[in-house]
């Protein structure tokens, strides 16, 4: 989002009068023209609400099983098709500071619980939209924030009434939660496959999902995806020595080693080159042959040392001399070079190997073990699969998709599935999905609002109305009349059927019976994050442009960041990753 760039005057900050609540409209206009600042509280709040709701509207059609996707086209030609709220917002060029605050809602939600980003942003937008009406009716922002705070606390406390405890060994419920996260435009078989992969992978690492590597490759359907009890190293990314034929296929044959002994070397492996001082002068053919023989002997010593230590797989963090690599391959030793630091460290942890600086430092006790090491080609990508490691702290998911875009989306979906699965296993509770629980909380708040004084009661009622925007949006995205669906939901909940929500067809159904379940922790975090962001935005009553001298004086912080956040004309700017759009208002 962009606002009009400040029209800063060259006058210093001491030469203008800062307006107060008693300032006349003429004085405010003069101040605005001189400094590029806006101090009229009503104008500021209207502008802030417009910025926040514009972000929410961008995501509204992506919510739920019938949500639509967004095609993100970068300046560099990169295309991403996704309905993940965090990914969409991360890819947009947003300069408006209030809009950035709403983007931060999605990022905070994703960092905390890994799911519910779109719901959090939509709820924030709905709360601000409702607050705008209250402010127009004469309520003070402090009263609105107080009422919203009361409603948020009450709703979070009452979540326990709709929660069902789940044992981490209950795979059926865990799969139901994962299916709910994966449900969109995939068929039932694919959704089940996502759920099975997520639960199996999470259980393999005792639900420490950060230990699961996720790699996606095009060229095969989702059904070809698999869980590896170990690590996968992408040799295309790790090595520059993969030879290909004219069709792009790798020339190095796929092969497998069982009961493999693995050596890790951090320094490059090759023939030591002479420096500028010791460069030999070759004057005769015999001297040249002597030099070549010395190099052959040095290469042979490398091969002999690895063979003597029964090494089956050599992983080098830097380069390996081409002739040494060819000799090792002839000996049946699999070689991977230029391995990324994170993969190198993970290999050491998983296999029990200790990294040696050079081949000369390598001893038999430093090698690690794995049941199988397989070099294979997935699509057009050569990979090294290390399975059956002594440490069971690592697992890898090989995800497949027919096209690169679909393959990328499978990874995004499995990320969501793993996040919600781990959340339930960690916190042990689920609530009905499909907007059922927000609807139940809205009904509770509407009934309890009468306990408060009239003005705060209006804010609590507004919070309840904002919660109803979730099932309303689900119904609209399914092609149903949201008024009819919400009216039916109110009747169901008034009759005590608190699990009634919006199903995949846009109708009203019991979410527990249909297996639509969500982690309680996700909704709890959604309520907290949306309220905090809304309160922060409502408390803003002026937008003041820093003077150039103020920005210069602030200087860079200790971590190298500009404390003034003065980027171009419009403040902090989001990373766009090459995506060209900006939302304006």
UniProtKB/TrEMBL annotation:
Residues 558-570 have a biased composition (Basic and acidic residues). GO terms for molecular function: ATP binding; ATP hydrolysis activity; ATP-dependent protein folding chaperone; unfolded protein binding. Residues 1-48, 550-585 are annotated as: Disordered. Keywords: ATP-binding, Chaperone, Nucleotide-binding. Residues 1-12 have a biased composition (Polar residues). PANTHER family: CHAPERONIN (PTHR11353). Belongs to the TCP-1 chaperonin family. This is Thermosome subunit.
